[in-house]
Amino acid sequence: MDDETNKQQLIVVWPYRFRDFDWQRFELEFLSEHFEVHIHELIDALTPEFTTAYANQSESERVTRFSSLKQWNREFRKISKDAVVFSHLRPVNFRLFIACFRLRISGATVVAFSTGGVSFSSVRVNPDKRDLPETIKKLLHFVRRNLLRIAMPHFVVVGGSEEVKRARRDFPRSTKIIIANSSDFSTTIRLMKNETVTSKGAIYLDTGFPGFPRDEIIEKTSETVRPEDWYPNLSKFFETVERSLGLKVSISVHPKHVGRDHQPLFGERETLSGQTAECVSLCELVIATNSTAISYAIAFLKPLVLITSDKIQNNRDQYKSSLIQNISADTGATIFNIDRQYSEQEIRAALVINHAKYASYKQKYLTSRTDNKPNYQVILEEIINPQDY
């Protein structure tokens, strides 16, 4: 099957802006050895307002961008029979239900993913929406996953025991759960094979909060923490860390915001793009709010500290605060409020790793496997060609 035209089709149906980062994250460079890969990007058809959150996109010829679902469906039908589809669509409204239903009846093998790799929060993203009692939620999940069975995928790839629970909540029994890894942990498996040397430095895992547009656009919520309430004291906290530990803090830029000017936010501080896993593997300390890339700190056994502020803690919207608190509880990481001052002793005390909590976090959110197989290998062995293994 060396000839590209004889390869089986792999269609990635992606509702966001597709970036080179996503090509790497889903290990498509390895899967492209076995498939002819097509990326069907649907952000302009589904949520065009969300495009402002992205500063970059893949220019690969494998990516086709569709402005309407009708246009996409016409092209999808040409190549979908006997294909493998990586679907990142969920039937959360009527349009998406129809799109998911079309995937299911297309003659393709449909594979979904639940590989977030970070602690959850039960607090609603939008505080204006009323929360429901847990018993009502469970009933609604039962009804939803069974009523929507005809639009559900054949497989769902999950990483970690908590993601397995979520998959069982969200998908019917007819969807087979494939035990794999979070996307970030799968990346670390490949990096762990290389010998690394720790360097002097700390890495801040930037999410773009609160300086750039982010997921609140699609959630239709507004950011209530202003940049002027965050960045000046964040810089002072970095300076405290640097004085206390004798190292420099660099900024790991979020993949959405590669290409934006970070200088107004971080001054002359070093910013690094497209190499978060490698930077964390080499650093001495990881600083974060609620980034999914925290999984790199867990995987590489790096000290982790979390940061918050008065505005976050006192905000009417407690979603971000609850995420930070949950990550702290799960990892044992100390939370520092950037609006307060800390001594060198307090900073140094936070460098102690709670290895038991790191191991638990890894099992709950990163992987349920013990064989260190990356996701592309799991997919090939357990979905595509199980008879060959």
Protein model, in words:
It is a single chain. The chain is of the alpha/beta class. It folds into 2 domains: 206 residues, Rossmann fold; 178 residues, 3-Layer(aba) Sandwich (Rossmann fold). Helices cover 40% and strands 15% of the residues. The strands form 2 sheets. Strands 3-2-1-4-5-6-7 form a 7-stranded parallel β-sheet, sandwiched between helices. Strands 10-9-8-11-12-13 form a 6-stranded parallel β-sheet. It is globular. The chain starts with 7 loop residues before the first strand and ends in a 5-residue tail after the last helix.
Notable characteristics:
389 residues; alpha/beta; Rossmann fold; 2 domains; 7-stranded parallel sheet; 6-stranded parallel sheet; 15% strand; globular
Mean pLDDT across the residues is: 90
Radius of gyration: 21 Å
Largest sheet: 7 strands, parallel
Write down the oligomeric state: single chain
State the name of the first-level CATH class of the largest domain.
Alpha Beta
Strand order of the largest sheet: 3-2-1-4-5-6-7
Total number of domains:
2
Strand % is 15-25%
Distance between the termini: 18 Å
What is the CATH topology of the largest domain?
Rossmann fold
Global structural class: alpha/beta
The counted number of beta strands is: 13
Spell out the blueprint of helices and strands.
Layout: E1 8-14, H1 20-25, H2 28-31, E2 35-41, H3 43-46, E3 63-65, H4 69-79, E4 84-87, H5 94-104, E5 109-114, H6 134-147, E6 155-159, H7 161-170, E7 176-180, H8 183-191, E8 202-205, H9 216-219, H10 227-245, E9 249-252, H11 263-266, E10 271-272, H12 276-282, E11 285-288, H13 294-299, E12 304-308, H14 310-314, H15 319-331, E13 334-337, H16 344-349, H17 355-366, H18 375-384
Parallel strand pairs: 1-2, 1-4, 2-3, 4-5, 5-6, 6-7, 8-9, 8-11, 9-10, 11-12, 12-13
